[in-house]
Q: What sequence folds into this?
């Protein structure tokens, strides 16, 4: 059966879509504040937008200053598709294809648009008490804008009474998110970010913890106001996550990836998730997809984990997914001794 026809059969699968990783649709769009529309200020804003985008895509604070990008930084117009003014900001839209090509040619690791969805538990503390930032209020929008600026998909909790009782300073500062996990399930996020922010007369400061699976990252930040504080926190979070998910071409090898339990919706998700790995779909067998990719195995595992895929061994693959073989007895030949099977290190198998 032809490959395209086999893909159409995936739509008949009864599996449901369970992945919660988010595609950042505006990853290559950057807003930078301006006080006027003068050409000199516009050019400065475009330069800042270039720095912001490179940091989003690489997670490296000094990436935009690398000598290999000197000419591009001097004239970023060659990777800009359009720009225009939105209120008091300059909106710069970069072309994804030419941007990725230039950054890869400069030897930089890139983090694709398929990113972990973060649920943010943000608690503000001041002289009047504690306030959990809930979705829909002004301070939540400030945090969302910082997340967009740093290329992170986020959700904010409703901050209803049950959540306010759980999101205490003690629970947000705990080494494990045991108290937060049950009330977080309703939001279907990939990771939890707990932030305790304190406002004083001069500035804001915060301590934060990020949980991705069972692994914890933590840090602290400060800012003159909530906007600068949230930007500082989310910048650090994006850099920590980029170390996990950014794909370095120089550290990649050619791998075969077999994925079982696919349907048409999951196929679309896989195409998006595997895009940074130069993936080629080589075979479709029922609900099993076989890709050739160029990837670091650990980074590939982290990326596919966002889709709730679990790695399996060859023994766990369904019998019908194995290559068919003829019985020697049917051919009138003596049965050969059972060969010793040595697992291939260049084949990774995953299943929903």
A:
């Amino acid at each position: 059966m032809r490959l395209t026809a086999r893909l159409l059969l995936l739509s008949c699968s009864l599996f449901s879509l369970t992945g919660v990783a988010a595609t950042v649709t505006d990853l290559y769009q950057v807003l930078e504040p301006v006080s006027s529309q003068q050409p000199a200020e516009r050019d400065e804003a475009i330069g800042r937008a270039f720095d912001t985008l490179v940091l989003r895509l690489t997670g490296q604070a000094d990436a935009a200053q690398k000598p290999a990008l000197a000419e591009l930084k001097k004239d970023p117009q060659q990777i800009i598709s359009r720009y225009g003014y939105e209120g008091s900001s300059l909106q710069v839209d970069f072309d994804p294809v030419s941007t990725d090509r230039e950054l890869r040619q400069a030897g930089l690791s890139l983090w694709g648009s398929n990113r972990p969805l973060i649920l943010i538990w943000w608690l503000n503390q001041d002289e009047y008490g504690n306030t959990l930032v809930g979705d829909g209020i002004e301070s939540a929008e400030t945090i969302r804008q910082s997340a967009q600026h740093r290329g992170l998909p986020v959700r904010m909790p409703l901050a209803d009474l049950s959540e306010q009782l759980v999101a205490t300073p003690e629970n947000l500062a705990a080494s494990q998110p045991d108290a937060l996990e049950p009330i977080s399930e309703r939001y279907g996020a990939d990771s939890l970010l707990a932030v305790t922010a304190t406002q004083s007369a001069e500035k804001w400061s915060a301590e934060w913890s990020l949980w991705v699976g069972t692994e914890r990252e933590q840090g602290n930040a400060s800012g003159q106001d909530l906007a600068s504080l949230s930007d500082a926190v989310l910048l650090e979070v994006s850099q920590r996550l980029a170390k996990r998910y950014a794909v370095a071409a120089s550290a990649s090898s050619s791998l075969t990836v077999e994925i079982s339990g696919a349907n048409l919706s999951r196929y679309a998700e896989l195409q998006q998730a595997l895009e940074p790995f130069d993936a080629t779909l080589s075979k479709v067998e029922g609900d099993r997809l076989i890709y050739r990719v160029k990837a670091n195995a650990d980074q590939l595992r982290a990326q596919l984990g966002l889709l709730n895929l679990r790695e399996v061994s060859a023994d766990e693959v369904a019998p019908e997914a194995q290559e068919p073989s003829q019985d020697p007895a049917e051919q009138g030949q003596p049965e050969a001794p059972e060969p010793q099977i040595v697992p291939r290190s260049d084949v990774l198998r995953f299943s929903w």
Confidence is low (pLDDT under 50) at residues 4-19. The longest helix spans residues 39-58. The radius of gyration is 24 Å. The first strand starts at residue 22 and ends at 23.
